[in-house]
User: What shape does this take?
Amino acid sequence: MARLKGKIRSLTTGDCSKALKTVIGGLAPVLRRWISYCRLTKVKGILDEMDGWVRRKLRYCCGGT
Assistant: This one.
């Protein structure tokens, strides 16, 4: 999970001039891979926790738009 959080941080940090669609476009393939991995391990709690964390990062990165 630390590697996933690090990857998401690298994609969502920086200036706020990035469009939300651009940021989500970069996150989508990463999140799809990790969701597939977590499904295999059957740890739904981790997916719920990560969902909230990613949403907070997007709100902070893109100004809540």
